[in-house]
Task: inverse folding
């Protein structure tokens, strides 16, 4: 295994005090071969370097010029996908978010559908107001929330007070098939409340769609937990239709780190390598020493 980092030879020349003759002699040698040769000749700097390079992170940073992302990438190309994935927790959250830019919009939507609904809703709230969400939701989604088994019937009836009487009458008439005789809003709502479960839910489904949106918004604004009852794909369709990828990636910054890391494992190895080059240099050097000593040995052996 060969690692081609030009600055390494210059570092060794300076560190070991090599003259021009030695530099030419070691031109095609590996790091390990150079250090071993010098150590055998009594070069104290080489002896110390041999002892330190598997334990000293600062030395590795200088030896491989790890502050340069290009040099990190050279090393990461020698790593397996599993090894790269273990580096992801070492990245800053902003770097994880930036890595999402390598995905297509379609891929981002598929991944958003797989994370916990709470996380998805947080992303949606970054891009849309509550009113915008409800205004853009398909009517079937509104029906799903309003008639869900966990919907608080008392909360629905309370907010029906804000619906004009005309529409309340229409709800009742759509179920009874007869002209509504109730005189005021309170009587109308009382009649709706006494419907059997099936008729009650059908009355809500039959509510004028504009009024249905108003009712849903009043309820979800009172208790945000009901946003979890909309289907995940309803949210992703909304995002894909009305927002650009740049806005979407930025909004995904509110997702918990653990889910961002899992998303990035879907990148092909060459792109995952690029993302991982943003890792803090000291953390990477320490990882080579503590987590990947066999890889470090191969890099040094050349």
Result:
């Amino acid at each position: 295994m060969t690692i081609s980092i030009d600055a390494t030879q210059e570092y060794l020349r300076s560190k070991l005090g090599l003259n021009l003759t030695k530099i030419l002699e070691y031109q095609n040698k590996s790091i390990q071969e150079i250090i071993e040769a010098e150590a055998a000749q009594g070069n104290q700097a080489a002896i110390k370097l041999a002892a330190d390079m598997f334990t000293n992170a600062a030395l590795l940073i200088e030896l491989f010029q790890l502050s340069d992302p290009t040099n990190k990438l050279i090393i990461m190309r020698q790593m397996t996908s599993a090894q790269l994935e273990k580096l992801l927790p070492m990245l800053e959250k902003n770097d994880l978010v930036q890595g999402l830019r390598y995905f297509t919009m379609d891929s981002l939507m598929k991944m958003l559908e797989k994370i916990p609904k709470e996380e998805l809703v947080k992303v949606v709230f970054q891009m849309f107001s509550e009113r915008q969400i409800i205004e853009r939701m398909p009517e079937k989604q509104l029906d799903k929330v309003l008639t869900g088994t966990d919907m608080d019937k008392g909360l629905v009836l309370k907010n029906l007070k804000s619906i004009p009487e005309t529409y309340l009458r229409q709800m009742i008439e759509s179920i009874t098939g007869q002209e509504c005789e109730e005189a005021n809003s309170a009587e109308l709502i009382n009649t709706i409340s006494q419907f059997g479960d099936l008729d009650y839910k059908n009355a809500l489904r039959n509510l004028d769609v504009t009024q249905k949106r108003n009712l849903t918004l009043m309820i979800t604004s009172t208790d945000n937990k009901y946003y979890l009852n909309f289907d995940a794909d309803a949210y992703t369709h909304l995002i894909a239709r009305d927002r650009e990828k740049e806005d979407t990636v930025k909004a995904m910054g509110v997702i918990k780190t653990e889910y961002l890391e899992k998303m990035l494992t879907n990148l092909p190895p060459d792109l995952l390598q690029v993302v991982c080059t943003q890792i803090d240099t000291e953390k990477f050097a320490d990882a080579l020493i503590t987590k990947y000593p066999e890889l470090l040995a191969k890099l040094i052996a050349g």
